[in-house]
Amino acid sequence: xxxxxxxxxxxxxxxxxxxxxxxxxxxxxxxxxxxxxxxxxxxxxxxxxxxxxxxxxxxxxxxxxxxxxxxxxxxxxxxxxxxxxxxxxxxxxxxxxxxxxxxxxxxxxxxxxxxxxxxxxxxxxxxxxxxxxxxxxxxxxxxxxxxxxxxxxxxxxxxxxxxxxxxxxxxxxxxxxxxxxxxxxxxxxxxxxxxxxxxxxxxxxxxxxxxxxxxxxxxxxxxxxxxxxxxxxxxxxxxxxxxxxxxxxxxxxxxxxxxxxxxxxxxxxxxxxxxxxxxxxxxxxxxxxxxxxxxxxxxxxxxxxxxxxxxxxxxxxxxxxxxxxxxxxxxxx
Length: 333
Description:
Layout: E1 4-15, E2 24-38, E3 45-49, H1 63-74, E4 82-88, H2 98-113, H3 120-131, H4 135-142, E5 145-150, E6 155-160, E7 166-173, H5 179-184, H6 192-211, H7 217-220, H8 227-230, H9 237-243, E8 251-254, E9 261-266, H10 272-285, E10 290-295, E11 303-308, H11 323-327
Parallel strand pairs: 3-4
Antiparallel strand pairs: 1-2, 1-11, 2-4, 2-5, 5-6, 7-9, 7-10, 8-9
Helix pairs in contact: 1-2, 2-3, 2-4, 3-4
């Protein structure tokens, strides 16, 4: 295996898009970067940067290290020690696919480190099994809008190119909501009427996004499977989902398991400032501080940079440019 340094830039994602529970996802222009290289020193080292990173493990129990080892095992190579750096501008446990982006970044970086023996589909299958659903990981891996299905053993997907006019506004509340807690709020059974309602809305949403009939989104993003049951966890959510279209949104949804709320917007809309004020004011009325951010759909999956290192060199010796220095021109914050 050549001695190389790999840097992977991977997009965030929003999942469900309203009715498409565990099946629809879209990549967003918010990113995490993972730098990975082989260590010959007998030690694995970590440098983790970004909000919420302080509490994450910096030993071999770290998710990125464990995911990388799955790639090496699948490819039947041994790389016991790594130098890993990560910076993420994706807020943790807010419904923007932070864990999915870490999984995809680790899979792609580890695969590139050993010459990319595993196909994108193989990485998709591994990521889906790790995450437990294909929507976020599919969006972060393939970019754009991804329609997917998983039967517990194999995942299928179709990618849709986002319309040029599509933009999103996210409101990110200043509190975390674990996916596990959000899933506990869901019922174990639903009525046939609610199932039919969501099948219709999901089908209409996919057709609207694929055809460019964005005016249909306001009808298609409605949901009865998960959002009504999670509303109690996010005060102000119900009002935002019901009234966002009155302020110029094409439609609105809970992003993934939340608490982030996302509105789909026509980029040429004259009402963008008013929509942003409405989201802020509605949450503020409930005592919730939230950051709003305009994000375009990200049309590409991970961007991979590979640097070949001279044989026998210690990657930590001499003048070394840190990951933060490398990416400072790209970071939003």
